């Protein structure tokens, strides 16, 4: 493959409060990325958006980038239409860069569906969030390393994940993950422990009570490893196991609890997850 023929998908989204609702006031996209028409399944103040990847998968040399801006007091939930597939590398890395800016009083729930890395994929994903005072962010990432249904293990390639969340030029949470594809990392208890699914759920900018931490920890998961950690301005949940559904169910349980107890919102699961 000639790298000149690779995709460079782009999204630039701006949300703002208009007439007692949050509206997508600016939308620029470049294939293969596209955003569906916004909709409001729960409240006009909360704008739901679904990102599409029309090419069906990501190959070496592809670059995906998104700029997302929530203006003051806007409320949005963003997810993806399907799981992302990262194919075996052709000699070039695949990259995704997402930059999010959240102004004062705004809240973004950023909940993409899982990413599936084929054995031999070389992939880097970067997420940077800039929070203003009184802004909040809820997000997760779920990664499956190897196509387990085909008994495929992630023994070649690599994944790098860089997440940074800042508020007023102060770092609130910075996370670096590097997973090379080999037997030692895949089976080591200090690596994947033979479990191909890893995930992180993170909340920043909200005051988290001890009761919320306790409820997150009592979720019943067998044969998987979970952890819950308080951050200075939020909290972090980690999953290592065998099931993307199990990871998402746990994260969803915590997320719905947060919506009801801290955001005064109801139980609203994106319909696209059920397709």
Q: How many helical elements?
A: 3
Give a quick account of the main beta sheet: strands, pairing sense, barrel closure: 10 strands, mixed
Residue share in helix: 10-25%
- Which outline best applies? globular
Our measurement of the CA-to-CA distance between the termini, rounded to an integer number of angstroms, reads 33 Å
How many separate domains make up the residues? 1
Strand content: over 45%
- Secondary structure class reads mainly beta
What do the pLDDT scores average to?
Answer: 93
Keywords:
single chain, 275 residues, mainly beta, 10-stranded mixed beta sheet, 7-stranded mixed beta sheet, 3 helices, 12% helix, globular
Task: List the SSEs and their pairings.
Elements lengths: L7 E11 L2 E10 L2 E3 L10 E8 L9 E8 L4 E6 L3 E3 L7 E9 L4 E4 L4 E3 L4 E10 L4 E10 L12 E10 L2 E11 L2 H5 L9 E8 L5 H8 L7 E7 L2 E8 L2 H19 L13
Parallel strand pairs: 1-5, 4-6, 5-8, 6-9, 7-10, 8-11, 9-12, 10-12, 11-13
Antiparallel strand pairs: 1-2, 3-4, 12-15, 13-14, 15-17, 16-17
Please sum up the structure shown:
This protein is mainly β.
How does this structure look, described?
The chain is mainly beta and 275 residues long. It has three helices and 17 strands. The protein has one domain. The strands form two sheets. Strands 3, 4, 6, 7, 9, 10, 12, 15, 16 and 17 form a ten-stranded mixed sheet that branches. It has a seven-stranded mixed sheet with strand order 2-1-5-8-11-13-14, with no helix packed on it.
């Amino acid at each position: 493959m000639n790298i000149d023929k690779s995709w460079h998908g782009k999204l630039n989204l701006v949300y703002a409060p208009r007439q007692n609702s949050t509206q997508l006031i600016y939308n620029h996209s470049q294939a293969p990325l596209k955003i569906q028409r916004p909709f409001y399944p729960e409240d006009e103040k909360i704008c739901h958006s679904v990102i599409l990847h029309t090419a069906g998968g990501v190959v070496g040399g592809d670059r995906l980038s998104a700029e997302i801006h929530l203006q003051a007091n806007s409320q949005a939930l963003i997810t993806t239409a399907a799981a992302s597939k990262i194919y075996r590398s052709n000699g070039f890395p695949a990259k995704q860069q997402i930059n999010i800016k959240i102004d004062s009083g705004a809240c973004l729930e950023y909940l993409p569906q899982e990413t599936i890395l084929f054995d031999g994929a070389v992939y880097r994903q970067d997420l940077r969030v800039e929070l203003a005072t009184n802004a909040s962010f809820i997000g997760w990432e779920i990664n499956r390393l190897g196509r387990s249904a085909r008994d495929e293990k992630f023994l070649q390639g690599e994944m790098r994940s860089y997440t940074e969340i800042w508020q007023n030029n102060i770092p609130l949470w910075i996370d670096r993950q590097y997973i090379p594809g080999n037997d030692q990392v895949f089976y080591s208890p200090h690596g994947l422990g033979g479990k191909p699914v890893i995930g992180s759920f993170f909340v920043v900018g909200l005051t988290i009570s001890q009761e919320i931490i306790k409820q997150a920890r009592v979720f019943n998961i067998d044969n998987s490893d979970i952890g819950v950690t308080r951050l200075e301005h939020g909290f972090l949940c980690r999953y290592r196991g065998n099931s993307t559904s199990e990871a998402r169910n746990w994260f969803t349980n915590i997320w719905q609890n947060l919506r009801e107890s801290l955001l005064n919102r109801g139980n609203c699961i994106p319909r696209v997850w059920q397709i």
